[in-house]
Amino acid sequence: MTSTIELRNTLTLDYEVGPFISLFVSFNEISNKNEYLNLIDKIKDAFTAKHDEIVWPRYERKLRRFNFDRAKHIGNGTGVAIYVSFKAIHSFDLAQPVKTQLSIEDTMNISQLVKEIQSQLHYHVLALFDDEFKVFRVDNGNFSVVNTPNKPLSVLVDNDKEKYFKLVDEYVKELFGDDNYLPTVIVANDENRQLFTQLTTLKNFSKDISYNFDDKNIDAEKLNDIIEHFNQSFLNKLAEDNNIKYESASSKHQVATDLRDIISNAISGKIDTLYISEDAYDKTLNDLAITTIGFAGEVIILPKKQMPMHLDVAAITLKF
């Protein structure tokens, strides 16, 4: 799992020396160690076409020492991002769909990692029925069942649904403990969802995102369908929030749409949020993203149709 802090630390290491090999590996396309080793031969051809062959062994050693099998089977993701400099190698597990891609430049290609960071989702799912409930935790599409010891029973309140839901609410709130900052979404029929929504005191209960379902026997396939629904709902809400944020900043004259103005703000550390169209992403915009993250700004890569004013690049700026 990649975080903005991990990425920022990697980008700002003083000892890093280019050129940089940026390699995104899809486990669907490169499925075993032999295929990975064959890929290294192709990387050599691309590297020596641009740089002195005498430098290549420093990079090759690091690539061949990388434990591909461990990355595939332990990482439990869709692929891996590998960055190799003259002195070091860094790798990040990928959870989002990825295509095998290579670039060799004087800076790291961070596009896939930016997409990973902006699409990370962590939340709880409460599956609530008339006299039963289950709790799941979802991390980037992977779910786990939350153990619910000594959970309340509806018979303790004579099957009074309102009283039972209040008990569930208090129990779940205590169960989450330090994780109560995560949003909670509900799986229930309309009647139960409406009643619980009225009663709940959960701090981050999501009233706008839910799933209508009334079968206690939720199998793994159905649960995956439910999680996919929730993931898309969260991402849609994120897109809406980004639009609202940009429009609010625009009304205060705190946006920039001219590339030269955005670059000037970036190198001065004055970008709050940088929006880049994935269709327009190139080396210039990649370097702009690196600079923005280095100054603790946020970078978001979007399809062109979701970009502010359908631009290739835009930014919300900071005022000091």
From TrEMBL:
Pfam families: baeRF_family3 (PF18845)
Descriptive protein name: Uncharacterized protein
InterPro entries from the UniProt entry: Bact_RF_family3
Domain of life the protein comes from: Bacteria
Origin species: Apilactobacillus apinorum
